[in-house]
Design goal:
The protein is of the alpha/beta class. It has seven helices and six strands; from the N terminus they run βββαβαβαβαααα. α5 packs antiparallel against α7 and α6 runs antiparallel to α7. The chain is elongated and about 90 Å long.
Length: 239
């Protein structure tokens, strides 16, 4: 029996995700030469096919089973790709890009190619046990990810409500009106008809029309925040 026979080897791949093209950097076992592969963005069948070909090629060269190990950065693409690959028995890690160990003295242009090459080299070290080079992010289940939607939507709507309030106050402040009596609740229409500028003039028709639209948008956003699933508990009228 050959005591030097390998039980298995790993092929490491790092995916640089973008809307149009996925750039995949591949490191074969016992090699520091990075191979670059391009896949049309979102084409998961092409991605899996390419990974399987790299896996088969490594197994043939090394004369033993090969495992494909994949990583990509956590970001706007979420976690669906990690779950997709794991369902197909492809070991996949999602990495926190802010944790990447970089050479602060090294000055280089930032490109997808260089990012992918650096990531796959770093990922191989991480997979081989060096936990100082980067940090892995836990991949949530679809249910866990979905459960966060209400809080995130409420935060976005609250920020939108603040923008409308600030816009209304800014428009009125241009004419010396510093106090708004009715931001929401249905009374703003009457208030707009009665309010006068600091120099005792009625609001201009275009200003009044713009304020009306802002109040309508504000009232709609406020209603979304204070009713339905976004407001599961009884809250004060101002939410």
């Amino acid at each position: 029996m050959n005591e030097n026979a390998k039980s298995s080897v790993s092929v490491h791949a790092a995916i640089e995700l973008s809307k149009s093209t996925w750039l995949v950097a591949v490191l074969s076992p016992n090699s520091d030469r990075v191979k670059l592969r391009h896949v049309r963005g979102g084409d998961t069948a092409a991605l899996v096919g390419m990974l399987e070909r790299e896996q088969a090629s490594a197994a043939q060269v090394e004369g033993c089973p090969a495992e494909i190990v994949v990583c990509f950065e956590a970001g706007y693409d979420g976690f669906w790709l990690a779950r997709f690959l794991r369902k197909r028995d492809i070991r996949t890690s999602v990495l926190d890009s802010t944790s990447f160990l970089v050479n602060r003295r090294s000055r280089r242009a930032k490109t997808d190619r260089l990012d992918a090459e650096s990531m796959v080299m770093m990922f191989r070290s991480f997979d081989q046990g060096d936990r100082t080079v980067c940090r892995e992010v836990r991949v949530p289940t679809p249910e866990e990810e979905d459960a966060k939607r209400l809080d995130r939507e409420r935060l976005q709507l609250s920020a939108e409500r603040t923008r409308h309030v600030n816009r209304i106050r800014a428009l009125l402040n241009l004419h010396g009106i510093r106090e708004v009596k009715a931001l929401w609740g249905g009374d703003w229409g009457k208030w707009l008809q009665m309010v006068r500028t600091a120099d005792d003039e009625p609001l201009g028709k275009f200003l009044a029309a713009e304020l009306t639209r802002e109040f309508e948008r504000l009232e709609l956003v406020h209603a979304h925040i204070c009713s339905g699933p976004l407001n599961p508990r009884t809250r004060s009228p101002t939410c």
